Amino acid sequence: KLAAAAKGHQGFMGDRALYTKARLLESKGKTEEAKALYKSISADYPNTTLREEVTRRLALLDEATSGTASP
Fold first, then answer.
1. In the 8-state DSSP scheme, what is residue 38?
2. Is 57 exposed, middle or buried (0-12, 13-18, 19+ CB in 10 A)?
3. Radius of gyration of the chain (CA)
4. pLDDT tens digits for 1-54?
5. What's the pTM?
6. Coil, helix or strand for 14?
7. How far apart are CA 60 and CA 65, in angstroms?
8. Is 29 left (phi over 0), alpha (psi -120 to 50) or beta?
């Protein structure tokens, strides 16, 4: 419901609602769903103030799911 509600509000706080949902998905071990949501935030909210954090979370999840660690 949170993601659906946020989709209709492309401006004010929609990005934060989706980010919060992605973090909750991560905490539940739903990595692929979280990654999809982070990618959606990047695509739908290119000017979000969360851009760096979303990029960082995606990189961490990609690293975790690829089974390789960065040096």
1. H
2. buried
3. 12
4. 555 555 555 566 899 999 999 999 999 999 999 999 999 999 999 999 999 999
5. 0.77
6. helix
7. 9
8. left
Nearest-angstrom CA–CA distance, 37 and 23: 9
- pLDDT for residue 71: 47
Hey, is 64 helix, strand or coil?
A: helix
CA distance 25 to 57: 12
Would you tell me how many other CB atoms lie within 10 Å of the CB of residue 48? 17
What's at 50, amino acid-wise? L
Instruction: Return the SS3 of 45.
Output: coil
**Rounded distance, CA 67 to CA 13, Å?**
33
